[in-house]
Automatic annotation (TrEMBL):
It comes from Ceratotherium simum simum (Southern white rhinoceros). Residues 1-28 are annotated as: Disordered. It is a multi-pass membrane protein. Keywords: Antiport, ATP-binding, CBS domain, Cell membrane, Chloride, Endosome, Golgi apparatus, Ion transport, Membrane, Nucleotide-binding, Repeat, Transmembrane, Transmembrane helix, Transport, Ubl conjugation. Belongs to the chloride channel (TC 2.A.49) family. ClC-5/CLCN5 subfamily. It catalyses: 2 chloride(in) + H(+)(out) = 2 chloride(out) + H(+)(in). It comes from the Eukaryota. This is Chloride channel protein. Proton-coupled chloride transporter. Functions as antiport system and exchanges chloride ions against protons. Important for normal acidification of the endosome lumen. May play an important role in renal tubular function. The CLC channel family contains both chloride channels and proton-coupled anion transporters that exchange chloride or another anion for protons. The absence of conserved gating glutamate residues is typical for family members that function as channels. InterPro entries: CBS_dom (IPR000644), CBS_dom_sf (IPR046342), Cl-channel_core (IPR014743), Cl_channel-5 (IPR002247), ClC (IPR001807).
Length: 816
């Protein structure tokens, strides 16, 4: 995923000027101000603090009329103060504090008038209204994507002359000249060879269909990658690694914007229709989060508060999974288990409501015409037996091995893409992979069909009327008990299907490694489920035939008599799909619930749980990271994983900046620096903020001020206040410092000063510091020694230290 190179070039990652709001802000080592020194001796000659200043005429800021020239312009809020630069982390504590203040103010005003009471009620209701809108929009877009992708997938093979807008299935539904056995063949549906050379028989017709299939696949892929490259580079990939990072507090401007939503919706249809080994389920989470972010701008409560907005995005992610799998409860659990960083109880309720509305909307659209939310919904009726836990656990082992193998190989390929010339030619890469996929896929009917249809076929429980090759059994029975078919010997079609599925498995395993991470929307859920479903179906058919021919074996004779329906191969496919998806993503609870909602069978939860846990244990033994965490680390995002324990015995002084022999910490003094001094520090450094101390000699901490707030406040003062010049004194105290007569007006910036920054002592264990960063969502923490400022630890420093302790490259953390 090399999309960051262009973003870094265009978004000011280089050293920026003072006047640039998009200048690069860094939390890294704060450097020395020339001429300063840190003195830790216990001295008493420090300037007085605010409360120690006597209110007399001799301390009024400098002589006659000076009190009238004091620039306390920040009593009114300034646009931009309190906001964040791109590719920086939000301050969770400050955002939650601002929301509490806003809520307290609305509550107090609601007692004063009826209008204020109505405003208070509407403010409380706005969150539920927003969830309703997100659910409606997400469900509608998912329905549109499903219908369009189904139609365009069939377009590669032919068109419906009875109505161009019909896909193959709907075209033959409306036909009066179709039989049940040949329900996919009707005169209204014409293959490309029928349209071009008026025949569907012979080698030349096969070549024509082959050529048109590859041509359409290349056209769809070219349109997808071109639209992403030109209009919305952020629309590529799955989106879940970035959404996890955004929900942890990172700012990526434009990633959830309207252009990303429009292009991702269009290109997702094109990418799925091209036949590449990818799915739409992961990108649907990105689409739903885009909907949530855009709709947040309609409500002040969410537009102006980054922490509240992330609560909405957590609920939107739940709605995305709800419409992707038709699993509202699984969507809520997925958001809680996999993507959310902060998930209070209120967000749980709202996520449930958003997922409910999204699923209801999609069900109303009925994109597949089967009154279901997904194409591969299935119901099983045969109970499973205790012995079958053994093959289910074997499928779990396979899923864990596949997950670990896929993550390692895919990350290696993506790293090669980022570090070599390959990353500079995304269009060529997509076209080459598409051409290889299409050329290899067409001869095999199981690779030629869409992956969702393949999974549906593999999950299917064979009945008497099924015409699929997977159901081509020899019927040697007179009647069935309870309407259930007994186990039967496999026919020629089943053996042929097994060989084709084995080849499909190899192709899916290999080609998915190179497909995931390209510059097109690409989900991983469906390809992973397909790999597992194929392996499961192969094992299931093998177990079925073993039980049929050897029902007198000790492992079968107690529960499987001759002529009984003992083994359900479709159930093995479902368990295998869950195992492989769990091995790749490391999901457990949400995965089992999603698969349960897909099948509607409570009795199959135990097999699913056994396979999911086994796959996670096996995959974790070979590598601790899931695919999304691995891509987060590959891209250098500042994501602090809440699930991992920090077990090393290091101290805050081992991690803080500056280190020994480093330049001293860059600080601002509370009342002795001029505008020119502060502007000079800002222009010469790239730090996100600066500690404010009483004086450089004492290093007694007053607070912390953000770089962006300083820039905006000073520029605003220069524009709106007369007399502010480079020699004007900036002070962060409550009262103006004593000034000689006829000096320029002073500039009070106390309102942008954080008076309660988090501090730890230099001997605080790092495991405590890491916990503080995780649980409070801090950007930085100041380190003190005997009450005096000693250094600073930023989130980036913590991540680098964790990487170093894990024998990983600490320089892989790129952002702040």
């Amino acid at each position: 995923m090399a999309m960051w190179q262009g973003a870094m070039d265009n978004r000011g990652f280089q050293q920026g000027s003072f006047n640039s709001f998009r200048s690069s802000s860094s939390d890294e080592d704060l450097m020395d101000i020339p001429g300063t020194a840190m003195d830790f001796s216990m001295r008493d000659d420090v300037p007085p603090l605010d409360g120690e200043i006597e209110e007399d005429k001799s301390y009024n800021g400098g002589g006659i009329g000076s009190s009238n020239r004091m620039m306390d312009f920040l009593e009114e809020p300034i646009p931009g103060v309190g906001t964040y630069d791109d590719f920086n982390t939000i301050d969770w504590v400050r955002e939650k504090s601002r929301d509490r203040d806003r809520h307290r103010e609305i509550t107090n005003k609601s007692k004063e008038s009826t209008w204020a009471l109505i405003h208070s009620v509407s403010d409380a209701f706005s969150g539920w209204l927003l969830m309703l809108l997100i659910g409606l929009l997400s469900g509608s877009l998912a329905g549109l994507i499903d219908i369009s992708a189904h139609w365009m997938t069939d377009l590669k093979e032919g068109i419906c002359t009875g109505g161009l807008w019909f896909n193959h299935e709907h075209c033959c539904w409306n036909s009066e000249h179709v039989t049940f056995e040949d329900r996919d063949k009707c005169p209204e549906w014409n293959s490309w060879s029928q349209l071009i050379i008026s025949t569907d028989e012979g080698a030349f017709a096969y070549i024509v269909n082959y050529f048109m299939y590859v041509l359409w696949a290349l056209l769809f892929a070219f349109l997808a990658v071109s639209l992403v490259k030109v209009f919305a580079p952020y629309a590529c990939g799955s989106g879940i690694p970035e959404i996890k990072t955004i929900l942890s507090g990172f700012i990526i401007r434009g990633y959830l914007g309207k252009w990303t939503l429009i292009i991702k919706t269009i290109t997702l249809v094109l990418a799925v229709s091209s036949g590449l080994s990818l799915g739409k389920e992961g990108p649907l989470v990105h689409v739903a989060c885009c909907c949530g972010n855009i709709l947040c701008h309609c409500f002040n409560k969410y537009r102006k508060n980054e922490a509240k907005r992330r609560e909405v995005l957590s609920a939107a992610a739940a709605a995305g999974v709800s419409v992707a799998f038709g699993a509202p409860i699984g969507g809520v659990l997925f958001s809680l288990e996999e993507v959310s960083y902060y998930f209070p109880l209120k967000t749980l309720w709202r996520s449930f409501f958003a997922a409910l509305v999204a699923a209801f909307t999609l069900r109303s659209i009925n994109p597949f015409g089967n009154s279901r939310l997904v194409l591969f919904y299935v119901e099983f009726h045969t109970p499973w037996h205790l012995f079958e836990l053994v093959p289910f656990i074997l499928l779990g082992i396979f899923g864990g091995l596949w997950g670990a193998l896929f993550i390692r190989t895919n990350i290696a390929w993506c790293r090669k893409r980022k570090t070599t010339q390959l990353g500079k030619y995304p269009v060529i890469e997509v076209l080459v992979v598409t051409a290889i996929t299409a050329i290899l896929a067409f001869p095999n009917e199981y690779t030629r069909m869409s992956t969702s249809e393949l999974i549906s076929e593999l999950f299917n429980d064979c009945g008497l009327l099924d015409s699929s090759k997977l159901c081509d059994y020899e019927n040697r029975f007179n009647a069935s008990k309870g309407g259930e078919l007994p186990d039967r010997p496999a026919g020629v079609g089943v053996y042929s299907a097994m060989w084709q599925l084995a080849l499909t498995l190899i192709l899916k395993i290999v080609i998915t490694i190179f497909t995931f991470g390209m510059k097109i929307p690409s989900g991983l859920f469906i390809p992973s489920m397909a790999v597992g479903a194929i392996a499961g179906r192969l094992l299931g058919v093998g177990m079925e035939q073993l039980a049929y021919y050897h029902h007198d074996w000790a492992i079968f004779n107690s529960w499987c008599s001759q002529g009984a329906d003992c083994i359900t191969p479709g159930l093995y496919a479902m368990v295998g799909a869950a195992a492989c998806l769990g091995g790749v993503t490391r999901m457990t609870v949400s995965l089992v619930v999603i698969m349960f909602e897909l099948t509607g069978g409570l009795e199959y939860i135990v097999p699913l749980m056994a396979a999911a846990m086994t796959s996670k244990w096996v995959a974790d033994a070979l590598g601790r990271e899931g695919i999304y965490d691995a891509h987060i680390r590959l891209n250098g995002y500042p994501f602090l994983e809440a699930k991992e324990e920090f077990a090393h015995k290091t101290l805050a002084m081992d991690v803080m900046k500056p280190r020994r022999n480093d330049p001293l910490l860059t600080v601002l003094t509370q009342d002795s620096m001029t505008v020119e001094d502060v502007e000079s520090i800002i222009s010469e450094t790239t730090y996100s903020g600066f500690p404010v101390v009483v004086s450089r000699e004492s290093q007694r901490l007053v607070g912390f001020v953000l770089r962006r707030d300083l820039i905006i406040s000073i520029e605003n003062a220069r524009k709106k206040q007369d007399g502010v010049v480079s020699t004007s004194i900036i002070y962060f105290t409550e009262h103006s410092p004593p000034m000689p007569p006829y000096t320029p007006p002073t500039l009070k910036l106390r309102n942008i000063l954080d008076l309660s920054p988090f501090t730890v002592t230099d001997l605080t264990p790092m495991e405590i510091v890491v916990d503080i960063f995780r649980k409070l969502g801090l950007r930085q923490c100041l380190v003190t020694h005997n009450g005096r400022l000693l250094g600073i630890i930023t989130k980036k420093d913590v991540l680098k230290h964790i990487a170093q302790m894990a024998n990983q490259d600490p320089d892989s953390i790129l952002f702040n």
